[in-house]
């Protein structure tokens, strides 16, 4: 007897049918058929990268990058309306409305921010149930915990905060995940009485007054960039002197580059430069023939310089 439908096929033939499909077909059909989704799961197919792109209140998107560069990028977005008709689907065991146009999937959502976050979470769960992903990326203007259910390791993680982060959130970002290039921006000052480990290989952070004034002797990143800052409360040159002196004497041995960006305070920049140079002279690091180049205690050459509006130290 010849099976009439896909569901009537034995398990192994189902797998072979799904294996013959491209990724778009597998995703499309898996969102409406449990049988196809289960067959696809057993094949352990993979994507190279998954990117969450969140710009609240209205932009919630996932990009899936195939391993084969000749295959098209697949995009999922949440929207209240679409130019094509929505059909019934299922995300993470929950009913949804979804449509597809080429490699773009649109999932119907309501106006609620909480609903959008839940939908993006369910969408991510469904994708990762079917496929494996090698690398994860985040670009968001909203801190949301659901990301960390799916991965604690990211190639890039860029967060532009609209609200002040809590200590718990900051500790998760700095210590609870592993990131190759981490960037945090904030439109409001973030003052913490606690200190955090800074372990991401390349780290970009705002507001130096809550960083440099704290003991950073255990940081393990290779590159630390502190972005545009206000100098209230006024930054004390001694904080920079202690930081640079510790690095020059061999502390923070992973750190190869440090940069601080001021906004528009020439007085602070001038005071900082003079204090740092004088202190390094007193400590014996300065070379007479190259006033901005120093020899660390481990024998590595380092450059300390200020190019308005930036102060930086680096190995050369």
From TrEMBL:
<protein>
    <recommendedName>
        <fullName>F-box domain-containing protein</fullName>
    </recommendedName>
</protein>
């Amino acid at each position: 007897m010849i099976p009439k439908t896909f569901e009537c096929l034995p398990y192994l033939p189902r797998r072979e049918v799904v294996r013959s499909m491209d990724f778009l077909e597998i995703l499309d059909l898996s969102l409406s058929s449990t049988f196809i989704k289960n067959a696809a799961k057993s094949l352990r197919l993979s994507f190279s990268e998954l990117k969450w792109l969140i710009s609240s209140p209205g932009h919630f998107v996932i990009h899936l990058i195939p391993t084969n560069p000749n295959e098209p990028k697949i995009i999922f977005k949440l929207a209240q309306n679409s130019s094509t008709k929505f059909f019934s689907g299922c995300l993470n065991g929950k009913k949804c409305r979804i449509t597809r146009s080429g490699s773009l999937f649109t999932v119907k959502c309501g106006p609620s921010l909480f609903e959008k976050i839940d939908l993006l979470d369910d969408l991510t769960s469904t994708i990762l149930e079917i496929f494996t992903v090698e690398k994860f990326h985040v670009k968001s203007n909203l801190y949301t915990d659901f990301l960390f259910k799916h991965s604690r390791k990211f190639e890039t993680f860029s967060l532009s905060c609209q609200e002040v982060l809590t200590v718990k959130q900051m500790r998760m970002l700095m210590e609870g995940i592993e990131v190759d290039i981490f960037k945090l921006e904030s439109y409001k000052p973030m003052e913490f009485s606690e200190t955090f480990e800074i372990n991401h290989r390349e780290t970009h952070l705002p507001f130096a007054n809550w960083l440099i004034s704290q003991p950073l002797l255990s940081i393990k990143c290779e590159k630390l960039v502190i972005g545009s800052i206000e100098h209230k409360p006024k930054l004390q040159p001694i904080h920079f002197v202690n930081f640079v002196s510790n690095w020059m004497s061999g502390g923070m041995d992973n750190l190869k580059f440090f940069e601080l960006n001021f906004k528009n305070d020439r007085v602070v920049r001038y005071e900082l430069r003079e204090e740092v140079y004088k202190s390094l002279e007193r400590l014996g690091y300065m070379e007479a023939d190259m006033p901005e180049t120093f020899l660390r205690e481990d024998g590595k050459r380092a450059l300390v310089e200020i190019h308005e509006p930036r102060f930086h130290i680096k190995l050369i």
